[in-house]
Amino acid sequence: MATVVTTGTWVLPKVNASQFTVNNEHITWGAVADSVKSGYVFQGGPVPVRVDGTEFVLGTFTHHNFPIPPLPQDQFDVRLAVNVAFEEGTEIDFVLRFHHNETPNQGPRPEDLVDLPVVHPQQEVVTVDGAAYNVLITGFWQNHKHVHQFVSPEGKSNSADIYALLTPVPVKPILHISRVEAIGNASTGQSDEFVEILNRGAEPANISGWTLSADDAGQDFTFPPGTALEPGRRIRVHTNEVRPEDGGHSFGIGRPIWNNEGDTARLRDTNGNAVSVFAYGDHDPTASGK
Hints:
Strand content: over 45%
Oligomer: single chain
Order of helices and strands: EEEEEEEEEEEEEEEEEEEEEEEE
Helix content: under 10%
Structural class: mainly beta
Largest sheet: 8 strands, antiparallel
């Protein structure tokens, strides 16, 4: 199996640079002993590459949040330059910008906030085992969820993996239902249930007029005009919530849609052709006992 080697280099913020220290994959800050400074860490290294359209980890970002004296400026941006080196000699460089909010250590909300950057897809071509692939950086994942922000408790650490995938060249848009979250928050009528759709191809996909549906009648969602999904990007359609960070799509149905025991999600194009089908639970024919 082919591998890549990822390395990361932190760049000092433009403000209060004297408060910060960069040491290899670490950047730390705070007028305290080095062992208890707050900071960020990027851990890369040799990474096995997947060529079957499955995402793989490029590296891990960690926020160490320790109590420190107040900084002259409590909000700042920190940049991380990441290099991804493939065995055949191709290197890809991209820059991530993290926005940090160093909140007071005391009070009702002492947790620090870190806005994780949105990574723009890389349209680089690499060769793996003699075949050409596009490299797509797909974003940060934590506990099997795509995340955009950390809420880091004082005295603890918070980590997320940054993922990528390879798609053969040339490849048309490949729309794939990657996840169905059937168990939502019961107190909200499970309005936060969702279906996630991923573009695994190397070209943007115009899905205006496409439909997403569950098994029961009256549970259909049609994507509005102008809906496009870039390579390596994903959107979610919630049951009865509008979340701009996930694309802003909702069935607008005030009751649960997805059966906790099992159901089938279907994505159809404008001609009614089934582009992707996702069956889970007792609807999954590959499940144990089927």
